[in-house]
Amino acid sequence: MKTYAMAHLTHVALGPEIIGYLEGIDATLAPxxxxxxxxxxxxxxxxxxxxxxxxxxxxxNRAAAKAWYESEAYQAILPLRMRNSSGAVFFIDGVSSDxxxxxxxxxx
Length: 108
What we know:
Layout: E1 3-12, H1 16-29, E2 35-39, E3 53-59, H2 62-70, H3 72-82, E4 85-93
Helix pairs in contact: 1-3
């Protein structure tokens, strides 16, 4: 099951450290088969309110996602982002191609 590393960053101070983070992150993803799915584009808002940036990185599974986040290479650049942005960052698993909305009722 694919796992997604997601970030909803509500404040990013664009400067040399964030640029360094952006220049370094792609190389940290490659060994874990991570790839950007969404990277900060402005949404077409249909309901509610929104601010900030959404980033979604796809991994083949939770183990690969965790291994990437905990890797020496990512940990080396992580402080660059953390010092210059705020928001929530988390992992979430995808669903199978035959998933139905009512499948969530079975989890209760």
